[in-house]
Amino acid sequence: MDIEDTLLMIPGPVKVAPRVLRAMSKPMISHRSPEFGRIYDDCRELLQEFFETKNEIVVMSGSGTCGMDAAVGGLIGSDDRILTITNGKFGERFTEIGNRYGRAISVDFEWGMPFDLERVEAALEEGVKAVAMVHNETSVGIINPAREIGRLARKHDAIFIVDGISSIGGNEFKTDEWGIDIAITGSQKCLAVPPGLAIVSVSERAEEALNESSGGYYADLRAHLKSVRKKPTQTPFTPAVPLFYALQEALHMAEEEGFEARRARIARLAEAVRAAASALGIELFPVLNEYSRYSNTVTAMKIPPEIDDEKLRGGMKKQGVVVSGGQERLKGKIFRIGTMGVCSEGDVLRTIQALELVLAKEGVINAPGEGVAAAAKALDR
Ligand code: PLP
């Protein structure tokens, strides 16, 4: 099937609006010019609303992991320890990065299981410079308790780093209220910009704690912070200029819709996916406790035992709808539907319809219809 006719429903990269794609085709400008400075300033101002923060924001040319690398590398030197809390693939990435620069003490939960705050607090007693967690663990579709971990980090005087890559702008995410010193997102998720930008907010407290000698040369938060204070505002190295055009346009789109309204739309879409899953007898993957919730930006579901991953996702793809499978140890066990950015009600209904047709064809359900009906009902609320 032609990619122009394909509906991309994975948890990032996501569908990009035509006006954002068009913005990228503008002529190049100098990245040291006042014109670029104005674009960057406009983005940074709107991003503060997006992140719900007054902290300084820098935009780095690189994917989301570049932001994680910059945060951990900037803070953790060979003599430092960082606490990482994991219940999925991206939490484990923080552990790997922590061990690259210093030492990570990881509190690990099974993939898809919720955090146990007592275990986290016990680990904090050991003394660490920073705590890192993933808010929306994309690999398993769970929202982890950033507010509560933020409180613990403050109590133990640790810098608090949160990967909000698949969360900021989609789920509730309160950088300042939750005491997040470094928050990170990626352009290809809730912003609905093509991949290639890592966006990082940095508190004064985090900036003061940045290590003089550690970290990489390119993803250096100190260099980025220095450059945004220059006139005109700039980046230390040549940025991906077309992506900045796209970011500015996408942020204006979000502002026009309203940041709150956008999150409410995404919440409704996810509610519809969950309602359809329930109607079709499909189990959601994550296990929740009082501190965790189902993600609104990615719904992870168990693959019914009567069908395999290839038939399910392959069958949906034949109908022009692309969804994600499980990663690593969850390969073949779960599938994931993304609802981020400019995803619409029609997109969700088309996705559920494709899912139902495959399930009916493979004999998992008797006839299609109940999933779409349940989703439509949820959207109508
Ligand atoms: N963290 C989370 C929660 C993610 O969802 C992703 C990507 O899916 C990443 C980190 C890695 O981001 P990137 O692939 O942009 O480097």
From TrEMBL:
Residues 28-328 form the Aminotransferase class V domain. InterPro entries: Aminotrans_V_dom (IPR000192), Aminotrans_V_PyrdxlP_BS (IPR020578), PyrdxlP-dep_Trfase (IPR015424), PyrdxlP-dep_Trfase_major (IPR015421), PyrdxlP-dep_Trfase_small (IPR015422), SP_NH2Trfase/AEP_transaminase (IPR024169). Its cofactor is pyridoxal 5'-phosphate. It is an enzyme of class 2 (transferase). GO terms for molecular function: alanine-glyoxylate transaminase activity; L-aspartate:2-oxoglutarate aminotransferase activity; L-serine-pyruvate transaminase activity; O-phospho-L-serine:2-oxoglutarate aminotransferase activity. SUPFAM superfamilies: PLP-dependent transferases (SSF53383). It comes from the Archaea. Keywords: Aminotransferase, Pyridoxal phosphate, Transferase. It holds the Pfam family Aminotran_5. One of its GO terms (biological process) is glycine biosynthetic process, by transamination of glyoxylate. PROSITE patterns: AA_TRANSFER_CLASS_5. Its EC number is 2.6.1.1, 2.6.1.52. Belongs to the class-V pyridoxal-phosphate-dependent aminotransferase family. This is L-aspartate aminotransferase apoenzyme / phosphoserine aminotransferase apoenzyme.
